[in-house]
Amino acid sequence: MKQLDVSAIKDGSVIDHIDSKSTLKVADILNIQNEEQMVLVGINLTSKFLGKKGIIKIGGKIIDQKEVNKIALIAPDATVNIIKDYEVVKKFKVAVPDVIEGIVKCFNPNCVSNHHKITPKLHVINKNPIKLQCHYCERIMNSKDILLI
Ligand code: CTP
Fold this sequence. Notes:
The chain is mainly beta. It has helices spanning 23-29, 65-74; strands at residues 12-19, 39-47, 51-59, 79-84, 87-93, 99-101, 104-105, 121-127, 130-134, 140-142, 147-148.
C-alpha cells in the first residue's frame, strides 16, 4: 500500500510538486491563515522528479484560476489536484499565461502603472525561468523581481 507523507484529504485542493523553497510563498498566495478548514503543508518531502518537494493541501476549497496563475509564477512545476470524496477528480499542471494582468506589479518605481489607476500588464517573454516585460515601461523582470499584488 502506498504510504502518504501528509495524510489524504476528503475534499479540497492539493498543490503538489512545489519547489521546496517556494512552498511558503505558495501558502501566502493561498492565504492559508484565513482558511477555516484543515490545511496541511509539507516541505522537503521526497519526490521522484524534483528530489525534494513541497505540498499544500487545503480542505474544502477549490482553488481559482487567478491563484493558479500566481502559483505558476512562483512554482512552475506545481501540479494541482482537485479531490472529491477522497478521489482525485481533476489533475493539471500550472501554466504561465502569455500575458499577466493585475497579478504582478511592475518592478520599476517610476512606471506609469505604479502612479496611476492602471491595471499592471506584463508580457511573458520566457516561461521557465520566468522573464516578464512591462507593457508600459518595457522594464524586464526576473523571478526575484516579481512582486505579487
Ligand atoms: N491526495 C490527497 N488526498 C486524496 C487523494 C490524493 O491528499 N484523497 C494527494 C496525494 O497525496 C498526492 C496528490 O493528491 O500528493 C495526487 O494524488 P495521486 O494522483 O493519487 O498521486 P500521484 O499518482 O503520486 O500523483 P502524481 O502523478 O501527480 O505525482
